[in-house]
Structures are given as structure tokens and as C-alpha cells.
Design brief:
Elements (H helix, E strand, L loop, with lengths): L6 H28 L5 H28 L12
Helix pairs in contact: 1-2
Length: 79
């Protein structure tokens, strides 16, 4: 994050990019399956992408809550 970039400005692109990675990996799993190819590794990577995306989304929700004046923010479990 640069000095003139807010946390929200940093996190929002990560969430968008992560959603794109998840969607692309889901499509790959489907294509592999349609061609009768093994999907185990692609599915494992998809699970990793989905976990990362959940963390990005939780971070975004926290940053958005902190950006609202007068809101009390508590840490999510595991963060």
C-alpha cells in the first residue's frame, strides 16, 4: 500500500482479482471434467483460491466498517 493509497483502495482490487481467479479456476475444473481429464489438483487449487478469497472479503468488510464513522469493529475469528 502506497502512502497515498487507502486500505480500501488496496483491498478492493484484491477482492475483484480474487473473484476472477476463482471463476477461472472453476471453469477450468469444469472443462477438465468434460474432457475426462483428472481434476483433483485443479480442485485443490480452487479450494485454496476460495479460502484466500474469503480472507480478502473479510478484510474488505473490516476495512469498510472501519471507514464508517462511529462504527465499532471487532476482529473476526481467526483474523
Amino acid at each position: 500500500m502506497s502512502a497515498d493509497e487507502s486500505e480500501l483502495e488496496m483491498v478492493r482490487p484484491h477482492v475483484r482479482e480474487g473473484a476472477g481467479h476463482v471463476a477461472a479456476q472453476r471453469a477450468l475444473v469444469i472443462r477438465l471434467g468434460e474432457h475426462g481429464l483428472p481434476t483433483a489438483e485443479a480442485e485443490a487449487l480452487l479450494a485454496t483460491f476460495e479460502d484466500s478469497q474469503a480472507q480478502h472479503e473479510a478484510h474488505l468488510a473490516k476495512a469498510e466498517a472501519e471507514a464508517r464513522p462511529g462504527k465499532v469493529v471487532t476482529a473476526a475469528p481467526g483474523s
